[in-house]
Specification:
Elements (H helix, E strand, L loop, with lengths): L5 H34 L5 H46 L16 H6 L1 H48 L6 H32 L8 E4 H11 L1 H6 L3 E6 L3 E4 L1 H18 L5 E9 L2 E8 L21 H7 L5 H11 L3 E7 L3 E9 L5
Parallel strand pairs: 2-4
Antiparallel strand pairs: 1-3, 4-5, 5-7, 6-7
Bound molecules: adenosine-5'-diphosphate (ADP).
Length: 359
């Protein structure tokens, strides 16, 4: 009855009430008349009127009680279903979808009636919790997998080292693998911790002014041993750019991008790092001449644990968290990170950051 003025609403209800009363009295009148004629008695007018009125009220009350019970039982079913759904959600069962069984409204009303809004909200809540639970389980299975693989390898090589017949060269090789796998685990735990802290609202976010070009140069110099060892030609162009950002967090972004570039660029390849101001943004590009990323993988590389080329990434020792951390930090700064790549031609990451952090 939504959309109908209140006075019409009340008028309809009052009319229905009187119609029901009239019907009850009419029924009582014919019933008593039938009884009197059957017993062959003609009562006094006043007596007949009183009996008729009483019986009329009785029929009216009886009808109202039956109708009320029917309405209440529908209402009861609705609330029971609702309470049961909330109980199931609280027990961790998110496969809940309450049917709109109570006074199913038509299209326009559906949006407005608070009870239907309540049902929709509970259904939405269950669907969101279910999606979060699926993400959590996927996260746990990814972490277990990332921990399990190096552990199996460490265990295997440690067992092999027990063999006294191993020559020193083999022994050295096995120890190197164990050392690398331990470093992998340690990096994984570092990254997991970083993500957990970034995800929580507890992370301190301290934007302060600093020179972005100096930070980039420092990061590139810090990993010089790695790119030097691979004979990589490092080409840097950095304008002097003052920025207001969280220096520690941003350093993590550059480290992840430059490390990836070094990791994926083959011997004798080239890495270009570019920084310039563009309007009210600082734009950083890190490009390499590595193997590139397939089109199908590009939209997913910022997802946690996503590795585009599993075999290559495994030998390179990644866990698929570096880019998701970089994206998280860029988002925290209200910046963006994007990628362009062609298999066989290299990859270019672009980070755009506002020069100032608004309030
Ligand atoms: P990882 O620690 O595995 O490198 P990232 O999140 O940093 O994790 O990267 C995700 C995936 O994106 C990598 O596994 C790799 O397949 C791909 N990738 C990232 N950077 C590059 C790059 N410069 N060249 C080619 N592939 C890259």
């Amino acid at each position: 009855m939504k959309g109908v003025p209140l006075f019409v609403h009340i008028a309809i209800k009052v009319s229905l009430f009187f119609a029901a009363l009239l019907l009850s009295w009419t029924a009582a009148f014919y019933l008593t008349a039938a009884i009197y004629s059957r017993v062959g008695w003609e009562p006094h007018g006043l007596f007949a009127l009183i009996v008729n009125a009483m019986l009329g009220f009785l029929i009216f009350g009886f009808g109202a009680a039956i109708l009320g019970r029917f309405i209440r039982s529908k209402e009861h079913v609705f609330w029971t279903e609702l309470i049961e759904a909330i109980r199931r959600i609280s027990r961790g069962d998110f496969h809940v979808n309450i049917e709109q069984s109570f006074g199913e409204p038509n299209g326009r009303q559906r949006k407005k009636h608070p009870l239907h809004q309540l049902v929709d909200s509970i259904n939405d809540m269950a669907a969101n919790l279910k999606a979060m639970e699926e993400l959590r389980q996927e996260f746990i299975s990814n972490v277990s997998h990332e921990i399990g693989t190096p552990l199996t390898s460490i265990r295997g090589f440690a067992r092999a080292l027990k063999d006294d017949r191993l020559d020193p060269e083999q022994r050295q090789r096995y120890l190197t693998v164990i050392e690398e796998e331990c470093a992998r685990l340690s990096k994984l735990s570092d990254n997991l911790l970083k993500l957990a802290v970034l995800d929580s609202d507890r992370h301190p976010f301290h934007p302060a002014p600093y020179r972005l070009d100096k930070q980039l140069t420092a990061v590139i110099l810090a990993c010089e041993p790695q790119w030097e060892a691979k004979n990589i030609d490092m080409d840097v162009y950095a304008e002097a750019v003052d920025i207001v950002a969280d220096e520690m967090l941003m350093s993590q972004v550059w480290v992840n991008l430059v490390h990836n570039a070094v990791k994926f660029t083959p011997e004798g390849g080239k890495i270009s790092v570019f920084l310039a101001r563009k309007g009210d943004r600082a734009v950083v590009r890190v490009a390499d001449t590595g193997p590139g990323i397939a089109d199908a993988d590009l939209p997913r590389i910022f997802e946690r644990f996503y590795k585009a080329d599993k075999s290559r990434t495994r030998s390179a020792g990644g866990s698929g968290l570096g880019l998701s951390i970089a994206k998280k930090i860029a988002d925290m700064h209200r910046g963006s990170i994007s990628v362009r790549s062609r298999p066989g031609e290299g990859t270019e990451f672009t980070v755009a950051l506002p020069l100032r952090q608004g309030k």
